[in-house]
Amino acid sequence: MESEREDFNLSGPLHLTFVDWSNAHHRRSVAASLVQAVYILERDRQLKRQHPIALAPPWWEFFHFKLLRKLVDDADHCIFGAIYEYRPPTPHGHQSLDASPRYVIAFRGTLTKPDSFARDIELDLHIIRNGLHETSRFEIAIQAVRNMVAAVGDSNVWLAGHSLGAAMAMLAGKTMAKNGTFIPAFLFNSPFFSAPIERIKDKRVKHGIRIAGSVITAGLAFASKRNYSSQQACSRSVADPFVALSSWVPCVFVNPGDPICSEYVGYFEHRKKMDEIGIGAIEKLATQNTLGGLLMSAMGRDSEPLHLIPSAVLAVNLSPAQDFKEAHGIHQWWRPDLQLQSNIYKYK
């Protein structure tokens, strides 16, 4: 069963015989397939599957990509990412290529296999404690992104990732955006570690809890900022980091049945509702902070929550999922019958 899910001819988006790069469904399906290819590259390595029995190549060759480089973790030597180059056949028309990438840098998520599981779980724990930026795997990833952007420009590069890999791609995108480089990103089931408020069925109770949480978080954040300002010998105007990031608008794909990523739905919707009832200023401050992050800052440890982003195209899969494995899986994102609801959220 597992090898069937790794076999492109059995599980891949064979319906995409022609990619229209202006079509959001096509872009999403290709990005997800390239992420899936990274999973299978690592499985090919673990199982010593080489040409002609390797299962990974069809996942990029079908869409006319070439594997340029594997990104290898220095701790356990597993493959966690890949850089692909788009090499289309001679086009019959240029309109379908206008929105295509030249390169895609993709990152896989956690693999529950002995050869890579321990290191992947270690990275997952770093996400929870907002310490992914301190890991050697991320250093390898961000250096690859910087080198590629320096060589070909940000408009020619896409980032893509799933689960742990989505967190890696998000952190890389945020890091580049802080320096004014905005890279298109496709983030599938990106972790949002929070109390599972989105699982509450009663909308009034859910909204009330979110308002209370926002008031508390904003109050603590305001007190923290005041304390910080009072310690400055020379007051200088410092740009709001969320404003600086707001021009970066990644595509965030979530499934409401997946508790790992579902809180993104409430995160963005709540910001909109707070604006509608006239207390958007409170949410503007709360949306940049978490209680855990503020607590860690108070203890002297600078901690920027990875999952908090100012802007996004949020795409929610409304198709029913049978279980968590399906709701969190990468395969859902290239289904032709996907029921997707998309909204653009821009931080103002």
TrEMBL record:
Gene3D superfamilies: alpha/beta hydrolase
Keyword Hydrolase: yes
Annotated signal sequence range: none
GO BP: lipid metabolic process
UniProt xrefs under Pfam families: Lipase_3
Keywords, comma-separated and alphabetical: Hydrolase
A GO molecular function held by the record: hydrolase activity
Annotated ranges, domain Fungal lipase-type: 142-182
PANTHER family for the chain: ALPHA/BETA-HYDROLASES SUPERFAMILY PROTEIN (PTHR31479), ALPHA_BETA-HYDROLASES SUPERFAMILY PROTEIN (PTHR31479:SF2)
Listed name of the protein: Fungal lipase-type domain-containing protein
Origin species: Linum trigynum
